[in-house]
Design brief:
Layout (H helix, E strand, L loop, with lengths): L15 H45 L3 H4 L6 H20 L4 H11 L5 E7 L6 E7 L2
Antiparallel strand pairs: 1-2
């Protein structure tokens, strides 16, 4: 048998301990990363389930637009009173034929169309309509 002719100083020597430590450290890191991902996945799954429950509850409740048709807020009542007072003051001035204007306005207004603002111009010759909407 011939002796092995290897010069150990020219070959890199990696001990088995170092290799085992590196492999064990890598495995621990992978396990920790996997556990963190699993926990995150579980939390997100619970959040998705909660959102689905909320969506189902909201879909079972009638829309707010349908319920608010019968209810009138205090602010809307105050705004209507202000506009009514303004129109009454202008009618009391007798400077503009409001009764004829309002009659024509009611006759020509399409159904379900709600005027927001109506006021005369500075010379009281025309009526300006603003903010028309359909509920």
């Amino acid at each position: 048998m011939k002796p092995i002719q290897i010069n150990l100083t020219t070959m890199p020597c990696i001990s088995r301990r170092i290799a085992c430590l590196l492999m064990t450290g890598t495995a621990v890191l992978l396990l920790a990363f996997s556990a963190a991902n699993f926990r995150l996945h579980r939390n997100l799954k619970q959040e998705i389930a909660l959102c689905r429950d909320r969506i189902q509850r909201l879909e079972s409740v009638p829309p707010a637009a349908e319920t608010s048709k019968t209810e009138v807020g205090e602010e809307e009542i105050r705004n209507t009173r202000k506009l009514t007072d303004f129109v009454n003051r202008l009618i009391a001035k007798d400077q503009f034929p409001w009764d004829r204007i309002l009659d024509a306005f009611e006759e020509n207004m399409p159904e379900k169309c709600v005027p927001g603002k109506s006021f005369p111009d500075r010379e009281f010759r025309k009526v300006i309509l603003k903010d028309m909407w359909i509920p």
